[in-house]
Amino acid sequence: MSETSDDWKAAWRPVINQIGADLVDGATFFGIDRAEPGAIRRYLEPLEFECALHTDAETARAYGFADVTAPYTAISTWAAAPVWEPGEQMFTSAERNALPARLSVKPAMPPGGPPVSNYFATDSEVEYLRPVLAGERLGRRGNRLIGCSPKETRVGRGAFLSYEWDVVTEAGEVVARQRATMFWY
Amino acid sequence: MTQKTWNQAEVGDALGPIAFPLSVYRLIVAAAANRDFNAIHHNSEYAKSTGAPEMYANGMFLQGMWERTLREYMGLAGTLRRIAGFRMNSFNCVGETVVVKGEVVRKWQDGETGLLEVKMWSENGDRITVGPGLVTLTLPMDAAIDA
Fold it and tell me: Where are the domains of chain B?
């Protein structure tokens, strides 16, 4: 029997049923590094982004900040997981396109869905409560599934999954609220 | 960098255009800078194996393009409050040039705070590949600059 046009969408029902659930039960996962001045400066390089708030502490202080600030759009960089940590062996293959044993940037895929191997980001919405200062360490608190829409796109069949979380400091202060959508396929 | 005040800003003000040519070199510098090491953003073979036409710019890099464009309009005393509608409609691939543009579409005050809403988008050839989205920002009042 041939597959009807919508049969494949039913495989996403277990994921749709998890809409509203926090996939990490409210846990906070901190980035490995603080927003160091050198890392802030490097964030500017590919953008050719000249802004003294991000490179000159004296200018930043003149605008009311205790130190240089990070660009608003860099918040996910400071909450990123490490590519490698002591005790791990990440690079085990010389095959040209081999990936590390653990991917530092892979978002959470809720259990129960159909097998998928690829994803990319499609949408982002961020509310910024204040700029991040050099020296601060950020984490992602929570990861609530807020949407799942199966769809066939030009890269294949899959689903758009939407998530929301808070970006917090080590003291628990929320500095940003973020929503993102990924297409998994 | 010139400081824009809320009093000077007008609905209809244009932001940009700022062009961002995408070479392999630049995409790799971007991945290293923003730590998005998904191989779709720096490895052509890998990107093509996932159905994309080529390696393509990551979301943080594309958001950073909007922030640079906004900062050049706002000046140092401006702040970002919200980015909404940042929708990546299609890939921005190596060998292409992303051009970011914007337009002020709303101006209002909340107490002593001067706010603007800016429509932002990224073009690539004859397509809009990101947005249009809406960004909320604050600018200082004339009085704050004169003080």
Answer: 14-146
Question: DSSP state, A172?
Answer: -
B121 reaches A (C-beta below 8 A): no
Of B33, B52, B76, nearest to A46 by CB-CB distance is B33
Instruction: Provide, as residue numbers in chain A, all residues whose Cβ is less than 8 Å from the Cβ of B52.
Output: 120, 155
**Residue that has been written with the tokens 């249009």 in this structure:** B132
Class of domain B14-146: alpha beta
Find where tokens 């706002």 sit: B74
Q: Shortest CB distance from B64 goes to which of A53, A73, A127?
A: A73
Contact A123 B87 (CB under 8 A): yes
The predicted-structure confidence for A2-42, as pLDDT tens digits, reads as follows: 556 778 999 999 999 999 999 999 999 999 999 999 999 99
The interface pTM score, or ipTM, of the predicted complex is 0.96
- Single-letter amino acid, residue A96: R
Question: Which sign, positive or negative, has the C-alpha torsion B47, B53, B55, B56?
Answer: negative
Residues, chain A: 185
Give CATH for domain A7-184.
Answer: 3.10.129.10
Q: What is the DSSP string of A118-140?
A: -EEEEEEEEEESSPPBTT--EEE
CA nearest B23 in A: which residue? A46
Distance CA B89, CA B112 (A): 37
Distance from CA of A174 to the nearest CA of B (A): 14
Collapsing DSSP states into helix, strand and coil, what is residue A11? coil
Residue A78: both structure tokens together: 């400071």
Alpha carbon separation from A114 to A7, A10, A16, A110, A161 (Å, rounded)? 12, 9, 12, 10, 13
Question: What whole-number distance in Å separates Cα of residue B81 and Cα of residue A92?
Answer: 43
Inter-axis angle of helices B59-74 and B24-34, nearest 10: 90
pTM value > 0.80: yes
Q: Report the interhelical angle of A37-44 vs B24-34 (nearest 10°).
A: 150
